[in-house]
């Protein structure tokens, strides 16, 4: 789905996909086709049901765009771009860990939250450099190797979620901490936006900036929901 379309379908159902162990939404019995012409089908029935709920929630006759269907957008990106070339996605994610917002100290950061993130990182063998300045950091090679090792075993679902969360937060450490349960989405978003929130406290509320920060947090929340639904199909 790349362009706007209007709802003309009446019924949305969830049926087994073409590949064994997959499920996908059908609109009046027809599969949703992605830009690659592949079917929208996933390996988690709960996720497929949530996708169907998205499509079923579109009002009749309403024009809908990809941004109106976040779970569909993330799933489609996973199917079309990440699954065929997961290593390319890992390479795109690494720079967010190199120039991570967590590594740049500012007055607005909640030090208790920051200490929790750094404590989580240390337990996971991640030891980034930090600065109170504005110049780009050069991270230790050992840290970058540890980050790469952290990404290496991740499947398409995790990479798809990170592909949304890392750019939204300007960080790789924060979404990894969220995925591990060390931070909530709200806590991570507060750390990621600490400098902007501090500026608004000092200079007054900025409606445009507040809306931008809210959109970023919502993107992260939807990515975490996508991952939780995708993981719900896994045994054990």
Explain what the structure shows:
This protein is mainly alpha-helical. It contains 10 helices and 5 strands. The strands form 2 sheets. The chain has a 3-stranded antiparallel β-sheet with strand order 2-3-4. A hairpin with a 2-residue loop joins β3 (23-27) and β4 (30-31). The protein is globular, with a radius of gyration of 19 Å. It starts with a strand and ends in a 5-residue tail after the last helix.
Report strand %: 5-15%
Count up the helices. 10
Looking across the biggest beta sheet, what order are the strands in?
A: 2-3-4
Secondary-structure content class: mainly alpha
| Unreliable stretches covering 5 or more consecutive residues | none
Q: Distance between termini?
A: 34 Å
**What is the total tally of β strands?**
5
Instruction: Tell me the radius of gyration.
Output: 19 Å
Helix content: 40-55%
Largest beta sheet, briefly? 3 strands, antiparallel
| Average pLDDT metric | 93
Please provide the ordered H/E string of secondary-structure elements.
Answer: EEEEHEHHHHHHHHH
Shape: globular
